[in-house]
């Protein structure tokens, strides 16, 4: 007996010439064969059709279904800078929309699904499978999706709707095959770039996941083809105690793995004693304290005052009243509507972040009037700040505004380099001094900030590595410094380094010339009368003035005499790329010092995002997979 076609699971005969689809209730003509109604199932209900995987019966005629290619958005990264275009395929238009056969056939069809009399021939090219697999890995890593997504029923149905011929890889295949391959390709590309880079600076930070595992993240920053580049190198588990020795060993192993031990200029991290010890003592490298951490300490220390704490507590109670009471919140909204004011809500501060306190005060000051009106009808209102306290709040906001601006700049996505630190600090100090404060509390806060800044930031201008970075930036040169003495010191340090470079170059040139001079020519010189002796003596006298030191001084003078570059322009693309031939040695120093980040924010940003990977839905991730996903995510 001939097997019954599965289409009758979804269709019901009305009479001898009509059938009804049990899914969408549409009537179709029936001529005794099932090819027509099966086409309806494939085009309009592809999920149900793909789920069946039935074997067609003899009564089913030749059927052709065409794949439709759709270009995928291009992606780029710092490793290969190659834009890849992937194509997804689909069997039909959106569910419920009747796409005509002519429309489907007129589209591009690289591969066909063909069903014949008694057997099925289902095909999809290996290239297409690889393209879709690659797009899947990109989605999982770019959006930090759990790898278990491919096991979810909803995702599987969605995948079948897009391409019934494609079977998503299992979580196991992704974990042990596709993800490692993608990671290997990306790391190989980055290693190839780094092999052609002379100088690299790093940022690093230690963080703890939800599963209490400790990790250390390292990011690399360098100039490639006159473009400032950055990327994650690794996120590795850090077992055991976080001593300077253990941290140093972990970093040393990572540097060896990437073959960058002899290219590192400096490492930027927070002010923790253990990580600083690892960098300076165990690795014998330059440590640059994170400017963002230092600024946070400065402002936090300055806000430690009993008078300020009383005001902050009163403001927090006020915010809590409207945060925890829907009636109070609705009342505030109603008052703002009546007063035709923007519908702004209160902002809660976070004790560990001073700028959240600034945001809280700023918002309260903005909605002070509607707050007062809304509290008037409250049965148990919190204590409202007095007129004098509002004056103090206004001055606190003015004083902290410049600190908040600097925090925003140094924590931006397009991170600032070390060369910007000195002018930023000087600008902050100048702004603070020119703020007019009337209240005693406001004046005390301003003076405390200035004093703490001088103490914590004072060493930046006299730090060789920071001073050289500012000096080598054509936007700042010697103008960045607070006094002439510090500017001259920076020039001296750069001059000394140039002197060594010119001396090395001179020795190399001399050795090459000596090795190339023919011995026969020397013998001829000895035989002939030395009629050139007088001239050669004059030349030697002139050459004594062209010492490495004098060449360095001349180069620096020429550099300083050139016009200052606009502050908003790129120092590499707009200056050094154009002058690297005439200032070859200075260009080399620019590559060395202008790629150093001002903060460890790049590393911190990594683990802030990585928190999504270590929550309850993703706690099965091994440290190795975590490292691979974070690395690939940084490529987008």
From TrEMBL:
<dbReference type="Pfam" id="PF05699">
    <property type="entry name" value="Dimer_Tnp_hAT"/>
</dbReference>
<keyword id="KW-0804">Transcription</keyword>
<dbReference type="GO" id="GO:0046983">
    <property type="term" value="F:protein dimerization activity"/>
</dbReference>
<dbReference type="InterPro" id="IPR008906">
    <property type="entry name" value="HATC_C_dom"/>
</dbReference>
<dbReference type="GO" id="GO:0005634">
    <property type="term" value="C:nucleus"/>
</dbReference>
<keyword id="KW-0539">Nucleus</keyword>
<protein>
    <recommendedName>
        <fullName>BED-type domain-containing protein</fullName>
    </recommendedName>
</protein>
<feature type="domain" description="BED-type">
    <location>
        <begin position="2"/>
        <end position="52"/>
    </location>
</feature>
<dbReference type="InterPro" id="IPR052035">
    <property type="entry name" value="ZnF_BED_domain_contain"/>
</dbReference>
<dbReference type="InterPro" id="IPR012337">
    <property type="entry name" value="RNaseH-like_sf"/>
</dbReference>
<dbReference type="GO" id="GO:0009791">
    <property type="term" value="P:post-embryonic development"/>
</dbReference>
<dbReference type="InterPro" id="IPR003656">
    <property type="entry name" value="Znf_BED"/>
</dbReference>
<dbReference type="GO" id="GO:0003677">
    <property type="term" value="F:DNA binding"/>
</dbReference>
<dbReference type="GO" id="GO:0008270">
    <property type="term" value="F:zinc ion binding"/>
</dbReference>
<keyword id="KW-0805">Transcription regulation</keyword>
<dbReference type="Pfam" id="PF02892">
    <property type="entry name" value="zf-BED"/>
</dbReference>
<keyword id="KW-0479">Metal-binding</keyword>
<dbReference type="InterPro" id="IPR036236">
    <property type="entry name" value="Znf_C2H2_sf"/>
</dbReference>
<keyword id="KW-0238">DNA-binding</keyword>
<keyword id="KW-0863">Zinc-finger</keyword>
<keyword id="KW-0862">Zinc</keyword>
């Amino acid at each position: 007996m001939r097997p019954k076609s599965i289409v009758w699971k979804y269709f019901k005969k009305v009479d001898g010439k009509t059938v009804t689809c049990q899914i969408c209730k549409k009537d179709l003509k029936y001529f005794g064969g099932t090819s027509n109604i099966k086409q309806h199932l494939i085009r309009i209900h592809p999920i149900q059709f793909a789920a069946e995987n039935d074997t067609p019966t003899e009564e089913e005629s030749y059927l052709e279904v065409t794949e439709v290619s759709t270009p995928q958005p291009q992606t780029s990264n710092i490793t290969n800078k190659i834009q890849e275009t992937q194509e997804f395929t689909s069997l039909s238009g959106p569910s419920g929309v009747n796409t005509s056969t002519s429309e489907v056939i007129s589209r591009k069809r690289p591969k066909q699904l063909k069903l014949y009399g008694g057997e099925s021939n289902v095909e999809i090219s290996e290239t297409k499978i690889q393209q879709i697999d690659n797009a899947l890995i990109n989605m999982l890593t770019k959006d930090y999706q759990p790898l278990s997504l491919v096991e979810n029923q909803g995702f599987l149905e969605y995948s079948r709707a897009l391409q019934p011929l494609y079977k998503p890889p299992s979580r196991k295949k992704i974990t042990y095959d596709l993800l490692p391959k993608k990671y290997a390709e990306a790391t190989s590309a980055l290693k190839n770039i780094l092999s052609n880079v002379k100088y690299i600076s790093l940022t690093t930070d230690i963080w703890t996941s939800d599963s209490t595992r400790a990790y250390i993240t390292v990011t690399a920053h360098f100039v490639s083809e006159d473009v400032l580049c950055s990327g994650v190198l690794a996120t590795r588990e850090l077992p055991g105690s976080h001593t300077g020795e253990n941290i140093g060993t972990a970093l040393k192993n990572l540097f060896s793995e990437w073959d960058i031990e002899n290219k590192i200029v400096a490492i930027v991290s927070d002010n923790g004693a253990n990580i600083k010890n690892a960098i300076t003592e165990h690795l014998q490298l330059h440590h640059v304290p994170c400017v963002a951490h230092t600024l946070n300490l400065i402002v936090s220390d300055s806000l430690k005052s009993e008078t300020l704490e009383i005001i902050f507590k009163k403001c927090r109670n006020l915010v809590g009243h409207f945060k925890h009471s829907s009636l109070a919140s609705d009342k505030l909204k109603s008052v703002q509507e009546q007063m035709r004011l923007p519908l702004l809500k209160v902002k809660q501060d976070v004790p560990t972040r001073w700028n959240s306190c600034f945001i809280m005060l700023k918002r309260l000051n903005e909605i002070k009037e509607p707050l007062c009106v809304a509290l008037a009808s409250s049965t148990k209102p919190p204590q409202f700040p007095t007129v004098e306290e509002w004056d103090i709040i206004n001055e606190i906001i003015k004083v902290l505004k410049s600190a908040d601006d600097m925090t925003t700049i140094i924590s931006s996505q397009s991170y600032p380099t070390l060369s910007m630190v000195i002018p930023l600090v000087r600008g902050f100090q100048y702004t603070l001094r020119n703020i007019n404060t009337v209240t005693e509390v406001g004046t005390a806060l301003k003076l405390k900030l200035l004093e703490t800044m001088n103490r914590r930031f004072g060493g930046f201008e006299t730090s060789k590595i920071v001073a050289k970075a500012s000096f080598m930036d054509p936007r700042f040169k010697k103008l960045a410094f607070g006094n002439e003495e510090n500017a001259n010191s920076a020039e001296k340090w750069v001059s000394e380094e140039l002197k060594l470079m010119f001396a090395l170059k001179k020795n190399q040139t001399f050795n090459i010339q000596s090795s190339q001079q023919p011995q026969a020519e020397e013998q001829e010189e000895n035989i002939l009368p030395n009629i050139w002796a007088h001239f050669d003596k004059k030349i030697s006298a002139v050459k004594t003035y062209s010492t490495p030191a004098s060449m360095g001084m001349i180069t620096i003078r020429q550099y300083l005499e050139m016009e200052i570059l606009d502050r908003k322009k790129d120092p590499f693309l707009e200056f050094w790329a154009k002058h690297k031939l005439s200032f070859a040695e200075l260009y080399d120093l620019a590559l060395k010092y202008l790629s150093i980040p001002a903060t460890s924010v790049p590393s911190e940003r990594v683990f802030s995002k990585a928190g999504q990977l270590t929550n309850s839905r993703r706690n099965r991730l091994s440290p190795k997979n975590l490292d691979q996903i974070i690395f690939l995510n940084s490529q987008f």
